[in-house]
């Protein structure tokens, strides 16, 4: 029996096993604690996949979500339950043989990339005429876009690490920093704190990525809207910014506007 965060008793282990095996579902969360119920009362009725079909479904779902992916990307997406490498490669070989998936050549990369054949026209169109995304949102540290940190670095140049478990003096950005997704790009990080008793959502710091200083006002305007939305979700009546950086100053102006 060890100590630390995962020092669970037998009941916690049993509940986790039943949840991970699909027999229980999470019906709600109260103060960060899961409230379990029988799966049939939480989830819509679905037909279970066979053991043979699951690896194929997993690959289709992963490729559809990522658009294009390397073998390592596929290993790092939806990592539960973990699949043996030979099993995953057999499934990929099957999709390639049937023509449902294809191998791509990606300029500047020596790795093997794969995509669903049905997605290739959209990928080619996006490559020929790139379009900026729209809007701004704050991502959870556990968003699927960040599941594979190395992929986020390769595609976006965004190196993210959650610092919840990092001692305060060693943190670079903050305790629970949220990546800022602005117009399809990862442009910054917001360090928020929700003061529940006072119903105040505080922005303790806004860090912009290198090269984004000239875009600070647009990022701040979008981040202000995202902060207001987060405040409404949390039941906070007031949003305030305590940092004195240039990016934070732009965020304060946007919130006042």
Tell me what the structure shows.
By secondary structure, the chain is an alpha+beta fold. The protein has three domains: 10-41, no CATH class; 53-128, Orthogonal Bundle (Arc Repressor Mutant, subunit A), CATH 1.10.10.10; 136-256. The protein contains nine helices and ten strands. The protein has helices spanning 10-20, 39-42, 54-66, 71-76, 85-98, 120-128, 149-156, 216-234, 246-256, and strands at 24-30, 33-38, 69-70, 101-104, 113-116, 136-138, 178-182, 185-195, 200-208, 238-241. Helix 8 (216-234) crosses helix 9 (246-256).
Number of helices: 9
- What would you call the shape? globular
Largest sheet: 5 strands, mixed
The ordered H/E elements are HEEHHEHHEEHEHEEEHEH
The proportion of residues in beta strands is 15-25%
Rg over CA atoms: 22 Å
Oligomeric state as shown: single chain
Please provide the count of β strands.
10
Mean pLDDT: 91
Q: Structural class, from secondary structure content? A: alpha+beta
Main β-sheet, spatial strand arrangement: 6-7-8-9-10
Approximate helicity band: 25-40%
How many distinct domains? 3
Low-confidence stretches: none
Q: Ends: how far apart? A: 55 Å
Helices and strands in order, then pairings?
Blueprint (H helix, E strand, L loop, with lengths): L9 H11 L3 E7 L2 E6 H4 L11 H13 L2 E2 H6 L8 H14 L2 E4 L8 E4 L3 H9 L7 E3 L10 H8 L21 E5 L2 E11 L4 E9 L7 H19 L3 E4 L4 H11 L1
Helix pairs in contact: 8-9
């Amino acid at each position: 029996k060890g100590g630390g965060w995962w020092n669970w008793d037998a009941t916690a282990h049993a509940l986790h096993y039943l949840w991970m095996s699909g027999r229980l579902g999470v019906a709600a969360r109260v103060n960060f604690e899961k409230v379990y119920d029988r799966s049939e009362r939480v989830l819509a009725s679905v037909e279970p996949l066979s053991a043979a079909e699951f690896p194929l479904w997993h690959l289709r779902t992963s490729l559809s979500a990522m658009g294009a992916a390397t073998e390592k990307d596929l290993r790092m997406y939806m990592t539960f339950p973990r699949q043996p490498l030979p099993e995953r490669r057999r499934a990929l070989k099957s999709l390639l043989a049937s023509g449902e998936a294809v191998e791509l050549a990606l300029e500047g990369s020596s790795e093997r990339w794969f995509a669903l054949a049905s997605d290739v026209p959209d990928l080619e169109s996006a490559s020929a005429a790139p379009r900026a995304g729209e809007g701004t949102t704050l991502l959870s540290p556990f968003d699927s876009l960040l599941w594979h940190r190395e992929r986020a670095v390769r595609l976006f140049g965004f190196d993210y690490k959650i610092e919840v478990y990092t001692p305060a003096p060693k943190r670079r950005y903050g305790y629970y920093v949220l990546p800022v997704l602005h117009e399809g790009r990862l442009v910054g990080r917001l360090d928020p704190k929700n003061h529940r008793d006072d119903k105040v959502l505080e922005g303790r710091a806004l860090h912009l990525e290198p090269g984004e200083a000239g875009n600070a006002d647009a990022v701040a305007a979008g981040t202000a809207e995202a902060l207001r939305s987060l405040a409404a979700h949390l039941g906070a009546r007031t949003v305030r910014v305590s940092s004195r950086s240039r990016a934070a100053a732009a965020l304060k102006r946007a919130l006042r506007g």
